[in-house]
Amino acid sequence: MIWDWSAMEFVLAASAPFGIALLLSAVGSRLPRRWHTLLTAGASAGLFGWLLGYLPIVTQQGAVETSYEWVSALGLRLTLYLDGLALLFGLLITGVGGVVALYTSSYFESEAEANRFTALLFAFMGAMLWLVLSGNLITLFIAWELTSITSYLLIGFKGDKEAAARTGAMQALVITGGGGLALLVGLALLGTAAGTFEMSGILGNTALRDHPHYTALAILIFVGCFTKSAQFPFQFWLPGAMAAPSPASAYLHSATMVKAGIYLLARLYPALGSTELWTSALLGIGLTTMLVGAVIALGKRDLKGLLAYSTVSQLGALVALLGLPDSAGLKAAFVGILAHGLYKAALFLTAGAVDHATGTRIIDRLGGLAKTLPGWTAVAVVSALSMAGIPPLFGFVGKEVLLDAVIGSYEVASLPLVIVGVSAALTVTAALILIFDVFLGAPRDSHAHGHPPGAAMLIGPALLTVGTLALGLLLEPLIVPIITPAVPKAFVLHLFHGITPPLIVSIIAVVAGAAVFALRRSWLAIRPPALPSGAGVYERAVAGASWIGDRLLSTQNGKLRVYLTVILGAVALLMLPAILAYNGQRSVDFTLRNTGDVLKLILLFVSVGATVAAIRAQRRFVAALFLGVMGYSMGVVFLLEPAPDVALVQFLVETLSTILIIVMISRISLTLRDRATRIESRQKPLSRLRDIAIAGIMGLMVGLFALGAVINRPVRESNVSDWYIANAKSQIGITDVVGSVVTDFRGMDTLFEITVFGFAALSVLTLLTLPQSRELLTGKGRARRHTDGPYAHVPEEDTYGIASFSTPLTRMAATVVLPFAVIIALVHLLYGGDAPGDGFTAGVVSGLAVALWYVVFGYYEAKRRLHRLRPGALIGVGIGLALINAALPLAFGRPFLAHTGLDIDLPAGLHVSSTLLFEMGIFLAVFGGSSVVIEAIAHPKEVETL
Amino acid sequence: MNAIFAIVTGILFGLGVYLLLRRDLVKTAMGYYVLFTAINLFFLAVGVFNGEVAPYVGEQGQPSDPLVQALLLTAIVISFGTYALLLGMINVASRRFGTIDSDDVDHLRR
Q1: Minimum distance, in Å, between the CA of residue A676 and any CA atom of chain B
Q2: Among A7, A241, A368, A720, which has the highest number of CB atoms less than 10 A from its own CB?
Q3: Domain of B89: which CATH number?
Q4: What ipTM goes with this model?
């Protein structure tokens, strides 16, 4: 990967807000608040300026793209793509972001809250910048989801105190997150259809509209965009999001995040837009949203609720504009985005200040704020007038171009125009309610007045208001250059076009809106009929999900047996098709070929009988011994197979297992064991019968399954086994075919196996001796234990049951056995290549000798005598040796675990081949593992708590 | 003979499941051990040769299947490790919950 440092600025700039968020969450609480303001507002202004610096380049070249290899195996690239559209949104994000940051620094009283909020706000800014600058669908989607998550955190900012904040946040996350899932599939389809996830490759692809996936991908992307931009019927999450602190509402839920859907629609317009589906979906949904939002807004008596629905209405207008064919609405959409961002953010910030000053946001309790909050009133009045579309404010331009675009595409007397006109009139009414019922007029509730907000808070909204005032008059020098690179067609933008149809509609709308406002006393009393919305569906879905969850939970009774039954039943069902398919029309061959087979049959009877005896035994020790009988019989079966290597390991492991379970049983207190025995014997016949039935069915299934496997298997045909037999000596250099398979042909299996075994053994040790396991593994701390510390009082022959075998004779035997066992182990190891026995055998033999020591000497004495034995380290060395053996071929440029071909004949029939190292590894790992287990179970420490 | 192995696999498996369904956790662990053994027998059953001699190069006669034996070797040792871990967990659970009745061990933390 070659990083082009001159182009790195894109990545760095887009990620700068993340850096600020991290910085604030790390050290923000230690910085004075003034520094916060400087840092946050300064960074926003810096980013704004940086983006503005690209304006001439983008105007000239169209787009600036930087791209890096990211995950080259998946063909993923990290691409940043700055064109007119991205630039426009980038300026909006950083501009409004800076203003909100200025406001926020004095909005919160608590230092910690301010810090956390600002950090979140900048995390969002970073996500939003990445969203609009992404030149790749994948990064775009990641950023999209990040905005949803930061929005969730900001809505739920006061979630520890307010239930509304929690529900609002969850609702917003579920709706936008659910839409995000649809979008993910849509973008994946889009990337597949286009053959690339790079934006530059998609935008120029005109064939996408005719692609067979077009309908599916367009609808999925619509769902994503409509949920994000609060379109009908998903609009209800946006008013719920008003539980967020006002700066977040101003920034995320009015100026930027809710416009992400608009952004994506505009972004994909060149590739996907202007089709019949596109136009009808966007116009239909957009106009519905516009009207529904405008109507509901009038009935809202919460200041932020009114603003939220008016935002919904405006978002609907923007979606409808993007629906117009042939890019007819793009100019109006972009002007609208800017105008709306300015006046609505200012209004939200004002609402926050009003809340701050009076302690309420209910319009009925407000009024006459002009006297107490003159500066804020000025901001609010100008912004509200801009919202109403009064000249010469910027909002007027926005409304004119909107009407112009609709009239340009449709007849004057068309339904779209009527809807837009009615919505515009109702928006005028909403604006007048804000102006006259909140700020002008007489104070209605004198008790509501609290502390006026500081003057510093006013700086940000005032800046926005200056923009609203001036930009309508400065279209040519400021707005046109910003919009030009984002609009494909040449256009003109004037404050006044003369007496044109849009102006006439606009005048009618203002007059009608004022009339509706004048009559508000009569219609405010009417409870508006519940307008259709997705809220009911959402609530039912949430209730349904939790109902299903309850039902599911009630099936969980915590009884291990029930879970096992379900799992086993499922396994039985899975086996059924195989059983049915493979057991029909086949003959089963039960011939016993020789005395060996007869013996095997007898031994199998013994093992089944021993198992039944183990089941019927009342005492667990007896049951354990019967299990041992079963294991040994199985070992003899292996021996008769003939499979001497396996038989050897089976005998040794069986011995170890029997010791293990007897010790384990003795470690469980007698009271508990007696209680369990009583419970067991009291089992009702019916439930016992049920268990027998389950066990019977399982046995039948597995038996038939195994039978199917056996009778369908081609006898005497195994390419693999034949090949192993033919090549063991020539390729691996050992005559023991099993050994060659274990250590070479299937070396990877063995490598995994000893690793798993080692870890299982270490886990046993950790479980049983948690506080001391470190000392035990490292072999340190014993000396201290015997002289001082909590174990000093423990007698040499501890009271632990297994030490009772300690007589002079057994002590001597144990002392002698260990060296012999190690010698036997080494012989097995060295001659294992050509004779029965191998690393496993050697390991378990040595482990058994160690076990004998623990049995004879008791824990502490054995530990003291064997202090040089570090079983934990042995496991590590063993696995290490096996790994070295596996990695050696790499040095010769051959693959991992390839055969190295070392083969040396030594005197005394000794034979060294490359597998010896592997065998040594197996030996050490198994020896270490079994010693660890033995040490753990011999450890007398009662583990009281974990 | 292999068909008999298959049938005994089924019988042992059924017995193992019965042990598995006991409320006594020690019996449950024993059930696992029986299941391990049953599976090992299944490995033996699917060996492709009716072997007469151990699979060593140079032996005269039909060797037994070396592949299943290699699998068995690892399976036996792994079974032991798993069994030890299981018993260790039961041991700890018996102290932590004060019972070895699996119906009483129904909370992760009391």
Answers
A1: 6
A2: A241
A3: 1.10.287
A4: 0.94
